[in-house]
């Protein structure tokens, strides 16, 4: 059915670009998230179009009107139109010919309902043309009105087509759903949770990081625990998922920044995952080297607290050895742990002051290098490294204040062995 509700494009800064596409492809429609977010009055990040025309015709028509057409995903029917340096994806209507739970073999169609039927959730299956009228074949308008995230058609069929839809459910439920998720959907997800093992690690982490940084992250991870999904995604949490969720919730209540690496480290720390297993976990999920190193380092020491960092020398020694981002992250985890275990004798204000000090203090840099020792007359060789290590230890113990000349004097007077 078609719901007679209309979107107004009044005041939309990109409307001239949308109009240009509709002039070239008059039968095309906006689809998916753009329609959903405009109905909710939210900012739209991406305007995606669908069209009955095949990709070659789309390309031909765009280029005939001077619009650059980029073949970003022609095998899947997608061409990107570049207008005023902004890309608009235009995808040919599709229907699934065959699916294996990870990939789908598609065929072009001119049937809008067939295309909508292959989408994941009803709130993502609506479309609208240049007249602004909404085309809603599966009740997305009503679901959006009552904050319900529901699969298009039979949940088990949609999940069977692509198991990643299980994780997408939690992402959209956290953003658009009410506190009482659709029971039929949860039942299907519970039964199909083992299918997650068939997904690539990259796809799993891509969704997990979005859930971690999205609204209602703690409650979504609890829901993932209840349905058996979290154990499938992160086996290292098995049997300790509740503790992991408790720790994540405590971190969020402390108003820590919504950083996926920090929140992921909180899950692992809450489940008391040992360092070796943390390393194996980030490796298995194929985190980038930067993200993996950050998660691993957040689980390390030293952990600054208001009680242990009392003077400027304490602060300098910390900053000399560990990046400020890591130290700050560790303070959030320590504060979350204290709150969780009701060790709240340290006021929140003291944690805030500590983080401010960490972020505003200048990072001390050891002023001596091997070339400085050689230039002062010392003989090059393995002994230079030993001397540098001893001098740095002395510099560090002294609060990282000594300059280059003082370090050279110490090296000559205390560490150079007589020939």
TrEMBL record:
Taxonomy, superkingdom: Bacteria
Pfam family, one: PolyA_pol
Domain Poly A polymerase head: 29-150
Similarity-based family: Belongs to the tRNA nucleotidyltransferase/poly(A) polymerase family.
Keyword Transferase set for record: yes
The protein's name: CCA tRNA nucleotidyltransferase
Coiled coil spans: none
tRNA nucleotidyltransferase/poly(A) polymerase RNA and SrmB- binding domain span: 182-238
Keyword DNA-binding in record: no
UniProt xrefs under CDD domains: NT_ClassII-CCAase
Alphabetical UniProt keywords: Magnesium, Metal-binding, Nucleotide-binding, Nucleotidyltransferase, RNA-binding, Transferase, tRNA processing
Cofactor: Mg(2+)
Record InterPro entries: Bact_CCA-adding_enz_type3_sf, NT_sf, PolA_pol_head_dom, PolyA_RNA-bd
PANTHER family in UniProt: CCA TRNA NUCLEOTIDYLTRANSFERASE 1, MITOCHONDRIAL (PTHR46173)
Lineage per the UniProt record: Bacteria, Pseudomonadati, Pseudomonadota, Alphaproteobacteria, Acetobacterales
SUPFAM superfamilies, per the entry: Nucleotidyltransferase, Poly A polymerase C-terminal region-like
């Amino acid at each position: 059915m078609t719901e007679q509700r209309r979107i107004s494009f009044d005041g939309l800064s990109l409307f001239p670009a949308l109009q240009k596409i509709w002039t070239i492809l008059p039968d095309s429609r906006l689809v998916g998230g753009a329609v959903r977010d405009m109905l909710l009055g939210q900012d739209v990040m991406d305007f995606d179009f669908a069209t009955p025309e095949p990709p070659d015709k789309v390309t031909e028509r765009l280029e005939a009107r001077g619009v650059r057409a980029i073949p970003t995903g022609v095998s899947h029917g997608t061409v990107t139109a570049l207008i005023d340096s902004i890309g608009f994806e235009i995808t040919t209507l599709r229907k699934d010919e065959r699916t294996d739970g990870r990939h789908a073999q598609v065929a072009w169609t001119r049937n809008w309902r067939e295309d909508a039927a292959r989408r994941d959730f009803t709130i993502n299956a609506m479309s609208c043309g240049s007249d602004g009228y909404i085309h809603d074949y599966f009740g997305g308008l009503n679901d959006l009105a009552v904050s319900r995230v529901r699969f298009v058609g039979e949940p088990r069929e949609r999940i069977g087509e692509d198991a990643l839809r299980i994780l997408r459910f939690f992402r959209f439920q956290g953003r658009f759903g009410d506190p009482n998720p659709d029971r039929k959907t949860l039942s299907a997800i519970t039964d199909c949770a083992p299918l997650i093992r068939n997904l690539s690690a990259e796809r799993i982490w891509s969704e997990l990081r979005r859930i971690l940084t999205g609204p209602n992250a703690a409650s979504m991870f609890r829901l993932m625990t209840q349905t058996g999904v979290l154990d499938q995604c992160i086996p290292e949490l098995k049997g300790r998922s509740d503790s992991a969720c408790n720790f994540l919730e405590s971190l969020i209540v402390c108003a820590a920044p919504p950083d996926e690496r920090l929140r992921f480290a909180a899950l692992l720390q809450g489940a008391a995952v040992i360092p070796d297993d943390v390393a194996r976990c980030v490796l298995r999920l194929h985190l980038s080297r930067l993200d993996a190193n950050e998660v691993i380092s957040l689980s390390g020491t030293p952990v600054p607290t208001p009680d242990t960092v009392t003077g400027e020398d304490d602060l300098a020694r910390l900053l000399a050895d560990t990046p400020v981002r890591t130290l700050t992250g560790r303070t959030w985890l320590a504060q979350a742990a204290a709150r969780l275990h009701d060790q709240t004798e340290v006021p929140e204000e003291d944690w805030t002051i500590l983080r401010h000090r960490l972020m505003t203090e200048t990072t001390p840099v050891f002023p001596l290098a091997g070339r400085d020792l050689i230039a002062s007359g010392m003989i090059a060789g393995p002994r230079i490294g030993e001397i540098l290590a001893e001098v740095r230890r002395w510099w560090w113990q002294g609060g990282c204040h000594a300059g280059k000349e003082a370090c050279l004097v110490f090296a000559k007077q205390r560490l150079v062995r007589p020939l």
